[in-house]
Write a structure and sequence with these properties.
21 strands; mainly beta; nine-stranded mixed sheet; about 400 residues; single chain; signal; about 30% strand; disordered N terminus
Length: about 400
Amino acid sequence: MRSSLRFVSIAAIAATIATVPGSAQKTTGPKERYEMDVATMSGFAAMAGGGGGMGGALSMMLGGGPDGKVAYQLNLRLGSNQAPTAPPPQGDHFFLPQARLGKSVPLVSPVRKPGTEPEGFERPKGRLLLYWGCGAKAGPGQPAVIDFAKVAAGQMPPGLFSSAVPIIREITAANSRSYMEWPNGKSSKQPTSGSSLAGGHRIASNVGSDINFTLAQDYMPGVNAQTTEQSDGSVMVRWNSVQPATGYVAWTMGGMDRNDRGGDMVWWTSSAAREFGGGLWDWLPPSVVSNLIAKKIVMPPSQTSCQIPAEVKKASGEMMIGYLNAFGPEAHFSYPPKPAGNAVWNIDWTAKVRFRSYTMLMVGADMEGMGGGMGGNRRSSEAPAGDGGRKKKCRGPLGIPLPTC
């Protein structure tokens, strides 16, 4: 699927700043860059074993659910400006026993085979109604309507995804002479329950020196969300305060069952501005989150509730599905240590560990037969819930598959 989502390299920005005349200290490198994305998924993701790719929308729809269970997920990326000593690029991330990942996991350079590239954009049917903001009623100018019949074949609807919140990836195959990642075709089993990342980590490869760091921050706690339909037709979403969350964002999709019939689909986000997708589905640095909170695009860490407008629920039909994302802290490491004064800092390697926690939002589904508890839906009236356990295959905007519901 082609889109206008932007990937921003923090390393490139830092290098530019370092060369500005008058800077206090010059730097070179790093020769190697390592990135470790850490997620806590609550409820149904844990029941499913934590499967799914974290970079895509599908994985973000598999959070939240009953009994406060959690699953963990890691994405590892190593980029180097050096060629491997013996091709292909390869390495290992060595863990302590408490990580429950074995002695190590292999870092592998991906091989792109002809015919395996993502397919182009396929125009959906019907219309997409966009709503945004917390409150009992939708704000002025809503919904914004995207009529897919008016979108040229092979094009992404203009203004659909966020242009203000980029997806941030410091390490990609495109900006690295040698690149490798995990999970991969050789190994993909995610951490089991009880895993801990606290302690020492070592990354050894054939594209540079070993990377060693000690991590103090562990997985974030799970997000437990509960939705309650209100008498005015709106839906109240409440969740636990997650430490050390830096901010929250939520979204839902509705009307998925109408997709094949060309009916309206509905997409709502908690952002006070019309901002959908992009980095809001991903990991974001605390400084970026703080700026987005000031712009009311992201909810502050002190907030633990948000009301989905009545118009969203009415337009969505009997069920909405979505997720609540809690952005978390980052840990940064580099070698050698930064020298004192104005001496040139020749950086050998840098490593960054990013954290977040997310869960599913389900409105209109009967959770009583699936464990009940957090992540389920409650009704403020005595009206019967659900439709007798009938399940449907749901698809979201742009053909994004949603879990069976």
